[in-house]
Amino acid sequence: MVFTDPGDAGSSITKHSFHGGADVLEHPSTRDWWTNGGELARDVEAMASAFPSFRIATEADRPPVWEGTIDTGYGLFEIRIEHRFDHGLPRIIPIKPSRRGASRGGRFMRSPHLFDSGTLCVAEPSDWDAARDTSATVVAWAAHWHACYVMWFISGIWPSDGVTENE
C-alpha cells in the first residue's frame, strides 16, 4: 500500500527494489527537517493510520525513530526505523531477531538484501521520495522484505526483487 494519504487505503505499494551491499552514505544537512511540524505531523498521522502499534521516539537534536513489530503470519520481526539527518532513505535495523539469516549446512548464511552493516535493504535510495513517502511507506517495504525473507528462510530462494510498478 502507498501510505502517503491515510485516507487512501486502496492504493498499492510504491515502487521499490531490493539489493544490498555498501551502506548508503548520509549527505551533510543543515536543515533539521523533523522540526518542521508539518513534515513530522504527516509522518505521525500516516503511521497512526497504517501501523498504530509502532512507537515513535523524538529528540530535539535527532531525527525521529520508530520501533514496532511486523507479523508476516510466519513470524514476528521487531524493527527500528531510523530517519536520517538528510531525510534520505531511513535505516531499517533488525531488533528481534537481531540478525537475519539461516543455517545452511551447519553454517550461518546471511540473508540476501542486507547492507554491509546488517540493516535491511528495502529499497534503492532513489526509490525514496521524502516529499511523497513516510515512515509508513518504509514499514510497508519492510513488511514486503520480511515476507520474502520468510520464503528465502524456508526455501533458500528469494522470491522477489521488489516492486517495479505500483501493484
Task: Give a brief description.
The protein is an alpha+beta fold.
Count of alpha/pi helices: 2
Instruction: Please trace the helix and strand order, writing H or E for each element.
Output: EHEEEEEEHE
Shape: globular
- The strand order across the widest sheet is 2-3-4-5
Question: Main beta sheet: strand number and arrangement?
Answer: 4 strands, antiparallel
Structural class assignment: alpha+beta
Low-pLDDT segments: 1-11
What is the radius of gyration? 16 Å
Q: What percentage of residues falls in helices of 4 or more residues?
A: 10-25%
**Span of the ends, CA to CA:** 9 Å
Total strand segments: 8
Give the oligomeric state: single chain
Mean pLDDT: 83
What does this structure look like?
There is one protein chain. It contains two helices and eight strands, in the order βαββββββαβ. The radius of gyration is 16 Å and the shape is globular. The chain is an alpha+beta fold. 29% of the residues are buried.
Which key features would you list for this structure?
disordered N terminus; alpha+beta; 21% helix; two-stranded antiparallel sheet; single chain; 167 residues; globular
